Amino acid sequence: MKAVVLASGGLDSTVTAALARAEGFALYLLTLHYGQRHALEVERARQIGRWLNAHEHLVLPLDLQAIGGSALTGNIPVPKDRSVTEREKEIPVTYVPARNIIFLSLALAYAEVREASAIFFGANIRDYSGYPDCRPEFLQAFTAMAQLGTKMGVEGENVTIRAPLLFMTKGEIIQKGQSLNVPFELTHSCYDPTSTGVACGRCDSCLIRKAGFKEAGLTDPIPYAI
């Protein structure tokens, strides 16, 4: 069995890849270098790919900076020190327009060429409920589109879109990762790291990660600037 895994170098995508490997899939990792300000995650994804013993790892350049519209790809400040209530009020400026539609479309093309039967995707609605492209309705619609718009779908060789972390809390994801011996020290979550690559400790992603390790009763092995 073959599976394409969207591998960002982050915690969720790494646990997702480890779950796919545990199910016996040969892993074909796809990492998008899309002009994100936290591009350190691309190198982390390469390291994680080696840990996973991936069958193949494609790092694909993609210039989303040219489109902009996000704090991750433009000069918009990354929000810091926000409370849970503040994070739940509206779609955050760290949302990258149509990112998961773009990423999953590329993963679908990769899966079709490699004859993979599944695409694994680290979407999670519990911690990232502000992102519209991490909802089950979106994944269901994308699956239907994939069946209608690809050669393999038309010929009856459908690919499944798997999001095994979709309804888990961050603490549950971390506990699952620990059971799979995920090297959390290699993962990168911060949206706005320092020039030396240290996590800021204050962006939404850092705060969610910190809370997740606390919930899991574990120590986060990465350093933080604060």
Account of the 3D structure:
- The protein is 38% helix and 11% strand.
- The protein has 226 residues and is an alpha/beta fold.
- It has a single domain (2-216), classed as Rossmann fold (3-Layer(aba) Sandwich).
- It has a five-stranded parallel beta sheet with strand order 3-2-1-4-5, sandwiched between helices.
- The longest helix has 16 residues, at 99-114.
CATH topology assignment? Rossmann fold
CATH H-level superfamily title? HUPs
Q: Tell me roughly what share of residues is in helical segments.
A: 25-40%
Profile the largest sheet.
Answer: 5 strands, parallel
What is the residue-mean pLDDT, rounded to a whole number?
95
Supply the number of helical segments. 8
- Spatial gap, N to C terminus: 43 Å
